[in-house]
Every structure is written in C-alpha cells, then in structure tokens.
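About this split. The held-out portion is used to measure sequence recovery: a designer receives only the structure tokens and must propose an amino acid at every position. Recovery is the fraction of positions where the proposal matches the reference. Here is one held-out target exactly as it appears in the evaluation file.
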C-alpha cells in the first residue's frame, strides 16, 4: 500500500526555501576581484619575484591620470595650479603611497658648483612668457626624465602617476578609484578647456567590476527569458516551464551564496557561472519533466494522490540512470580545470561542479516534491489535454526532426550509413583543418583585451600609450654579489648598452627608467660648471689664452678652473692622498675641446671656426642621416653646453680623476651621497646598492612582445654582463607573460583530466574500455572544431576562452551518454543495427535537440556581455553545442555500427544503466 508523501514534500520544500533565503541574504557580501597578482598561486615563481620586487623597490601598483588642455599649451599658471591641487588631494588619500606629477617631480641641477635637487617648476613661477620659456628649457635639458613620462611632447597634457599600496583590498582599490575620479572631475569642472583620461592596472580592475555588475544585471534576466521560452516551446504549459527554471535559479543562488559565505571572490571567469548554471542546470529538470510527462500520458486517469506519487517515484527511477550519468560526466568536464594553477580557473572548477551537484539534487528533490503535491483534479485535466494534443505534439517533433517517422534524421543516417568512406574522408578533412588552426592559435593573457575596442577604458589606454610612454610595464632587476656592486661603472655601462639594445630592437618600448639615467644626469650636472666662463677672466680671449697656457705647461684642468669636483670630494685638500691629485688631471685630448668651446661661449666665432665646430659635431655622431635633434645634441656635447659632454657613465679613467675602476666606482658612490632626492624605486639601498631596477614601460599590452623583450634582455645579460651580475624579470607585465604559459599548461592538463575521467566513467559503467574510446570520439571532434574555429576567427586562447573546452566536455558528453544509453537499451537482443540506430535516433533526438538548442541559446545571450571575451564564450559554446549534438547523432551511430562493440549487446547489472522493470523507453 502506497503511503501519502505530502507532508514529506512540504517539509522538503520548506527546507529548500529556508536555505534559499539564507544564501540570498549572503549575496551582497560577494567581493569582485580582477587583480592579476591575485590570480597566481602564492608559491609560483612569478608571484614570488613580484613580492621580492615590492619589498626591494616599493609598491608596483600604478594608476595613470592624464590631464589635457584644448589650448596650445598646458604650462600656464591656471592649469598648473589645478594639477598641483589634484596632486596634493590625491596624496592625502589612504592607500596611495606616492604621487608623481609635474608639480612635484625632481629637477637635478648645479647650484654654485654643487649638486642640487629641487622642483622642476620654480616656486616663483608666475606663468609669464619668460617663466614658461624657462620651464620649457628645464624640461628640454633633461627630456628623458620628463617628455612622455610627465608631460606630452606637444606640451598640451601632463601625467600624474599614483602608486597604490600593494596590500590594498579590492574594496579599498574601488574606493581609491572612485575618489580619484571625484577629485579630478571636481578640480577641472570649472576649467572647460581641461579634460582627463585614466588608465593603469587598478583602473582595468575597476572597469572589470563595473562591467561585471552590468553583465549580472542584464544577462541573468536575459538568460532566464531565453530558458523560459525554450521550456515553453518544449512543454507548452506553466508547470513544465517554471519547475526546471525555479530549480536551476535556486541552485544558482545557493552556489553564489556559498561563494559569499566562504569569501571566494567573483572574477571575470566566475562571472559566467550564473549563465552557465541556468543554461546547463535546467537540462536535468527538463529530462525529469519529460520522463514524467511520457509516463503520465500512458497512464489511465489518476484517481488519488498516492497513485500519482507512485508515478512520480517511478519517473525518478526511470530518469535516474541517464540524468545521473549526464550530471556526473558534466561535473567531470567542469572540474577538470581544477588542475590549473590559475586561481580563477580553480574557482570555476569547484563552484561550477558545486552548482551542478546542487542542480542535480534539486532536480531530484524540488521538482518531484512539487509534482507530488499537485491536486488530483489538476492531474486529470492535464491528462485530458495530453490526449487531445497528441497530433500537435507529433507535428512539433517533426519540426525538430524527431517525429515518429524520423523523416529528417532517418535520411541523414541513411545517407551517412551508405557512404561511410565519404563520411570518414570528410571527417578527416575537418579534423585536419582544425589541427592546422590549433597550430596557428594565438595565446594572450592581457586583461585589456577583454574590453571592447570602443570602450572608454580602451580608448584612454590607447591615447595614453600614443602620447606618453605607455601604461603597462615590468622590471629588470640586476643583482650583484656584494653591497655597492651597482655603483661599478662596468655594470652601469652594460646596463646603458642593454637599454640601447632593447630600444633599438623593440619599438613598443615607450621608456626605460634606470639608475644609469640618474648617474649620467648627476655626472653632467657636476661638470656643468665647467661650461661657464671663468668669472675672474678679463675677457673670453684671455680665458682661451689662459687655457692654452695651462695646456702647454701641462697644468691640471679641473678643480681650479671648473670648480666641479670639490663639491663631492672632501673639501679639505690635506685629506686627499697624493694619488688623488693626479685624478684631477683630465686628458687634454678628451677634455680640451669641451672646455675650450665652453669658455669661449661669448666669443664671436668666425665663419671658419663655426664651420669647424659644426663639422666636428657632425663627425662625432658617426652616421650620415642625422636629424636636427641629433645634430643639436652633438653640438651641445662638442661645446660641453651645460655639461652635455659628461652626460655619460663615468667609466673612462683617462677622462676622470681616477686611476682604477674602484676609484671610478667611488665617484658614483659620492654622487649618491650628495643626491638629496629618492632613488628607492631604483635601488635596494641608497649608498651601497647591490640590486638595481630597470623599469620597462611598454606602449602595448601584447604579452608576446613583452616576452620577446624579456628574452632579449636575458640573452644580453648572459653575453655581456660582468661576472657575478644576474638579471631577472619581475612585475605585472612579467606576470602576464607567466600567465600565458600557465594558460597553455592548464588547458592541456584540464583536457587530459576531463577526457580521462569521462573515459573511466563510461568504461566502468559499460564494463568495457571500448565504451570510453567510442564516447571520446564525438567529443574530441567537437573540441578540435572549437579550437579550429577560434584560430580561423582570430579569437585568442586566454584565461576565459580556455573554459570552452571544459564546458564542451561537460555539456557535450550529455549527448553522447544519452545516445549510448538508448542505443544500448535498443541493442540488447536485437541484431538489426539499422533499426536499432533509427529507434535510438528517434528516441534520443528530441532530448538532444531540445537540450542543445536550449543551452546554445542560453549561452548566446553572453554575446550581449560588456566583455569581448565573454561574447566569444557565448559564440563558442553555442557552436560547440551544435557540433557536439550533431557529432552525437551522426558520428556515434556510424562508429557503433562500424565496429559493433560487444558491450552494447550485453545487459549489465549496474543500477545506473539497468532499465527499470515495466518501463518502456
């Protein structure tokens, strides 16, 4: 006697309701995080190098704010005051550890023959034409430090660089971004000619959050509407439409709620989970409802609740085998990405599997519980409607190609069956083209590529990359063996050569900021006094004659004439050893031209002298196709204009007051002692640095180009650096390169694991390894086609699109499982393979077609995502659903009939595969 289960059903529904309410209340606690460094495992070498870089040289998380004017120049009092206010206000924000802008950047110069570090903009700057001209001259005096970094080459825009605390949390980063935008907009609001752009990794992360919120707000209702439409077209009643939908929506809430409770952040990868769970999870409810309606249609009119509950129970037994097996294989496909070292992919693996488990559980608990409490009167009306709609039902199945006569699919099977050779040839061609496409597949991990090209964030980045030195970068860290090794001119000279080598071979490099640049500038400034006319000379002619007499008599030229070295060597000459006196003698061949011309700066040159000067400058460059700027620089060096002839690493013993390399090294050390600015971002110690950082700023986010720069730098270091010095790359740009390598390895490992799991499941359930091999064939074809389509359409393989293969296996295996299960049931005791195949196609066609259509349409809504990469996911998954379902309905029957595997003709004792007694499929 059947027992009434109504109370149990209400209890189950009550528990499900309470759990749903709890997790729904947790949803506001979800944190969104798209910071690249958080995607890495903490034991990854790239992550360790980034942390080591931060410990040695300070925070590396940078935000670029560009303020531009529509006027001819931004170097006016009003605009610079706005920049100063923005700089000061930003500097007061929490978690901003440093601000660099034109209003506070250092200017290294000489003051009374001594090294001086002050502000680039003088305190008494009034904005007059003379002051603006002087400011331009200062910028032009050290262009590498300012042009493109702090100010644009056309003087119409300035860049403010904000360094953020690396340990700031995602909500704190959001707060900084919002406050930065507010401060900038408030300050420029009253200046119509001013506008701003903003870029940097924190900005990309914040725009990622904005886009994710918009996607969740727009795509979830859209996918819900699509599923409702698909369900209604399939079942044509509210019950069949709403029950699978409600079940899958509850499972989505539970999954997201679990993430919120345990503090798992939502990333761009996991942001597609709601769409995935709604589209895929609805399939289990669809199957149960479909099995229920098939049984209810064949039953005599229901007269009591217990009889109906018995039917629901038997329905669950009928659906248990294919639905559980499909769910398990789907979980196997999704969870395969857990092998990836990339944390968002691990998170996707875990929570997609959790979501499918919950969806399965609710399909077997929530839907039957609701069905069991239906009033008998409603059940009887439903049975009557089913009888009257039998003809309409067959018509709908015919549209899908799955009617009782199987017209469309029958013809397709018969065509392929009679042309097996042609079929195999065509399949081989498709596979060959797909393999060719895979070999040409582009792999990319730059987060910027996820945004549309016409988006504001992408436009801002492009504009800044064009007019300034770039928005992405990394560091080359050079390390010596002992303290002070980085003051050795030998390594500094090679670092300068490395910089020249990289710039000449990689046009995408916008700037290289290195300790060598500061050494060269300080060396120039310390010799700038040599360029000034002697104060006590009666005339320029007398000064020139005095220099000629000094040269003739072999007297020292340097300390008494230039007054330069007494500013950084000891003032007390008694403390200087005898050997130091010799250091102050410059080689006449090297020093005489620069000092001679500089001391004659106010002499009116003859045409012959001017021509000779120009010729000497031209010849010093060593190439014929000089630009105007190159010629001017050469001329400055020739006459030692403001020390231009000493804008170099002091590495020539004959030119400087030194007899050994150690004494040249001491000159650099003294420069560090006198420099009042901060070099913490470039040196690990102020006076005796062992490690130095070269900051490479790129005008591209192409990880392939970044990887090429790193590779060339490492090869150069191995070939040219002195013994004992090493070079390694670190920073966010290097992490993107490492991410690319991880994408490849994780794609391979996840595919291997997914196929292995599916192979084992099918082999165990059918008790034959052949089942695993056969089941993998249509799956492998659809995956190959996916990668081939990606290559042919120019879609990158990245962190997000790498999910497609796992989704293809997780969902596509459903079609294989359903087809093989029904083929097995038909094959037992029958030898007519053609009839077995036709019956299987007719029976499986509806479920496969409806599911593929529903899931494909569900994922197509992602084409409306704000992210380009999620649009690609929508297109690719929909395509995979098409190829996987077609492969299951075409390739599988041909393969099964061609090889005639024995396991298909045998009955198995597995509960998962045994057809329930009394059930006619």
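Reference sequence for scoring:
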């Amino acid at each position: 006697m059947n027992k009434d289960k109504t109370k149990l059903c209400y209890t189950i529904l009550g528990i499900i309701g309470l759990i749903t309410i709890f997790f729904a209340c947790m949803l506001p606690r979800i944190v969104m995080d798209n910071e690249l460094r958080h995607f890495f495992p903490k034991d990854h070498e790239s992550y360790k190098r980034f942390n080591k870089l931060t410990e040695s040289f300070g925070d590396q998380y940078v935000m670029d704010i560009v303020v531009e004017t529509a006027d001819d120049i931004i170097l006016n009092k009003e605009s610079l005051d706005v920049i100063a206010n923005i700089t000061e206000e930003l500097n007061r924000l929490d978690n901003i550890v440093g601000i660099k802008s034109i209003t506070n950047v250092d200017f290294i110069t000489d003051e009374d023959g001594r090294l001086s570090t002050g502000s680039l903009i003088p305190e008494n700057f009034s904005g007059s034409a003379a002051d603006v001209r002087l400011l331009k001259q200062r910028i032009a005096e050290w262009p590498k430090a300012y042009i493109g970094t702090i100010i644009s080459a056309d003087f119409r825009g300035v860049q403010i660089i904000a360094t953020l605390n690396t340990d700031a949390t995602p909500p704190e980063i959001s707060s900084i971004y919002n406050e930065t935008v507010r401060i900038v907009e408030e300050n420029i609001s009253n200046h119509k000619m001013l506008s701003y752009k903003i870029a940097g990794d924190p900005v990309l992360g914040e725009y990622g959050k904005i886009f994710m919120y918009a996607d969740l707000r727009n795509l979830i209702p859209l996918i819900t509407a699509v599923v409702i439409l698909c369900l209604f077209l399939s079942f044509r009643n509210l019950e069949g439409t709403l029950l699978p939908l409600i079940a899958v929506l509850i499972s989505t809430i539970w999954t997201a709620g679990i993430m919120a409770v345990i503090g798992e952040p939502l990333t761009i990868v996991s942001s597609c989970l709601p769409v995935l769970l709604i589209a895929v999870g609805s399939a289990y409810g669809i199957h149960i409802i479909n099995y229920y309606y098939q049984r209810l249609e064949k039953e005599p009119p229901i007269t009591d609740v217990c009889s109906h509950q018995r039917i629901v129970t038997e329905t669950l037994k009928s659906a248990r085998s294919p639905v559980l097996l499909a769910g398990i294989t789907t979980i196997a496909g999704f969870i395969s990405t857990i092998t990836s070292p990339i944390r968002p992919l691990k998170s996707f693996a875990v929570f997609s599997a959790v979501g499918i488990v919950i969806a399965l559980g609710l399909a077997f608990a929530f839907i039957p519980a609701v069905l069991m409490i239906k009033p008998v009167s409603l059940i009887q009306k439903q049975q009557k409607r089913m009888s009257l709609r039998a003809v309409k039902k067959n018509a709908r199945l015919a549209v899908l190609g799955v009617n009782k006569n199987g017209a469309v699919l029958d013809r397709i099977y018969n065509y392929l069956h009679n042309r097996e050779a042609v079929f195999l040839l065509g399949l081989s061609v498709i596979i060959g083209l797909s393999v060719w496409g895979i070999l040409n597949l582009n792999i990319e991990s730059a987060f910027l590529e996820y945004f549309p090209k016409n988006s504001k964030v992408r436009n801002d980045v492009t504009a800044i990359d064009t007019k300034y030195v770039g928005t992405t970068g990394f560091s080359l860290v050079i390390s010596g063996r002992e303290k002070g090794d980085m003051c050795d001119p030998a390594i500094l000279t090679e670092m300068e050569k490395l910089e020249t080598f990289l710039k000449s071979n990689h046009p995408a490099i916008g700037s290289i900021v290195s300790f060598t640049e500061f050494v060269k500038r300080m060396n120039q400034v310390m010799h700038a006094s040599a360029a000034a006319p002697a104060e006590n000379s009666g005339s320029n002619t007398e000064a020139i004659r005095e220099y000629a007499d000094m040269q003739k008599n072999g007297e020292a030229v340097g300390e008494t004439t230039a007054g330069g070295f007494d500013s950084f060597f000891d003032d007390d000459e008694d403390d200087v050893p005898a050997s130091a006196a010799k250091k102050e003698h410059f080689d006449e061949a090297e020093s005489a031209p620069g000092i001679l011309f500089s001391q004659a700066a106010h002499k009116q040159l003859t045409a012959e002298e001017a021509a000779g000067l120009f010729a000497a400058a031209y010849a010093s460059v060593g190439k014929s196709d000089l630009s105007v700027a190159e010629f001017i620089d050469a001329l400055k060096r020739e006459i030692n204009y403001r020390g231009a002839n000493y804008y170099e690493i002091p590495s020539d013993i004959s030119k400087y007051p030194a007899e050994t390399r150690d004494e040249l090294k001491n000159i650099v050390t003294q420069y560090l002692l006198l420099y009042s600015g901060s070099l913490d971002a470039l040196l690990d110690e102020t006076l005796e640095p062992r490690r130095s950082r070269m900051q490479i700023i790129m005008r591209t986010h192409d990880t392939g180009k970044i990887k090429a720069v790193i590779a060339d730098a490492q090869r150069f270091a191995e070939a040219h650096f002195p013994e004992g010095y090493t070079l390694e790359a670190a920073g966010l740009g290097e992490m993107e390169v490492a991410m690319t390598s991880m994408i490849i390895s994780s794609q391979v490992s996840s595919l291997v694991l997914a196929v292995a799991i599916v192979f084992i499941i099918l082999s165990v359930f059918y008790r034959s390894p052949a089942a695993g091999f056969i089941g993998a064939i249509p799956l492998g074809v659809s995956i190959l086609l996916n990668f081939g389509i990606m290559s042919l359409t120019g879609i990158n393989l990245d962190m997000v699109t790498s999910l497609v293969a796992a989704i293809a296996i997780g969902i596509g295996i459903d079609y294989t499982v359903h087809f093989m299960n029904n083929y097995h049931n038909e094959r037992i005791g029958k030898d007519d393979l053609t009839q077995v195949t036709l019956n299987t196609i007719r029976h499986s066609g509806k479920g496969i077609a409806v599911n593929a259509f529903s899931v494909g349409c569900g994922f197509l809504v992602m084409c409306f995502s704000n992210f380009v990469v999620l649009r690609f996911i929508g297109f690719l998954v929909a395509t995979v659903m098409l190829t996987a379902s077609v492969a299951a309905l075409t390739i599988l029957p041909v393969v099964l009939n061609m090889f005639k595997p024995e396991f298909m003709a045998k009955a198995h004792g597995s509960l998962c595969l045994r057809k329930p007694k009394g059930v006619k499929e």
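Annotator remark: Residues 400-406, 531-598, 910-921 have pLDDT under 50 and may be disordered.
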